[in-house]
Write a structure and sequence with these properties.
Elements: H1 4-15, H2 18-22, E1 25-32, E2 41-42, H3 44-57, E3 62-70, E4 74-82, E5 89-98, E6 101-111
Parallel strand pairs: 1-6
Antiparallel strand pairs: 1-2, 3-4, 4-5, 5-6
Amino acid sequence: MKFPVVKRLIEAINAHDLESLTATFAHDFSSTWPTHPARSFAGSEEVRKNWEFILAQFPDIQVSVTGYVESADEFWGEFHYLRPGAFDMRGVIIVKVRADEIVQSRFYMEEVDETSVPHPMPGVAGAPTTN
């Protein structure tokens, strides 16, 4: 990985090390969830509060990156959050890096369906057909 801060973030999450995890974020960090705007927030203190909660709820959480692309200042990664006792989460997180800090992220993460659920756009490829 081109960005050591992303590697440190993943290692800190997997070690459940809140201090190291929080240290990877800039004080002016912003998190955007384009498909869930109400989940967006700003500030490294909010990162800390969120991860305190996540680590308490999922003490065995493990995160992996299954693929990624890097540009001048961005890391586009396909993430897998393994949360024992809850649904896994998978999706893309776009991380913007400044110096050696994470300054922005855009989350496109969703829980993995455990069972079949209706396709949100019936009639498109991959959607079940009714006869």
